[in-house]
Amino acid sequence: QVQLVESGGGLVRAGDSLRLSCAASGRTFSSYVMAWFRQTSVKEREFVSTIYSGGSTYYADSVKGRFTISRDNAKNTVSLQMNNLRPEDTAVYYCAALRGYSSRYNLPSAYNYWGQGTQVTVSS
């Protein structure tokens, strides 16, 4: 069982930066695939970024070059550094965890555990 708690959301201006964090309680955190998704009222939950236990990372095209995902296995945390934020990035951001491996890293259905979400709002 894994419990995930996100933090770091808030209201920022376009072009600004924000760092989200996710704290996990699982004892086997280091073996989990971790990811960030986001969701608005008009779109399905969409993939943002993922980081595998070995450190490999993947990004949605919409955030590539602006966002950076990282993890600290010693502290059971995963972070999302968001730079050059745009109004289109406004959404509730969710942390997700997957036991083992999946080639479907970009699909919500692949993940076993989810946080409650944190709101990110980017003003124009």
Layout of helices and strands, plus pairs?
Layout: E1 4-7, E2 10-13, E3 18-24, E4 32-40, E5 43-51, E6 57-59, E7 67-72, E8 77-82, E9 91-99, E10 113-114, E11 118-123
Parallel strand pairs: 2-11
Antiparallel strand pairs: 1-3, 3-8, 4-5, 4-9, 5-6, 7-8, 9-10, 9-11
Notes on the structure:
- A hairpin with a 4-residue loop joins strand 7 (67-72) and strand 8 (77-82).
- With 124 residues, the chain is mainly β.
- Helix content is 0%, strand content 52%.
- Strands 2, 4, 5, 6, 9, 10 and 11 form a seven-stranded mixed beta sheet that branches. Strands 1-3-8-7 form a four-stranded antiparallel beta sheet, with no helix packed on it.
* Helix run count: 0
Structural class: mainly beta
Fraction of helical residues:
under 10%
Mean pLDDT over all positions: 95
Strand content: over 45%
Distance between the termini: 40 Å
Following the backbone from N to C, one meets helices and strands in this order, namely EEEEEEEEEEE
Ranges where pLDDT stays below 50 over 5 or more residues in a row are: none
Largest sheet: 7 strands, mixed
The gross shape turns out to be: globular
Radius of gyration, in Å, reads 13 Å
Number of strands: 11
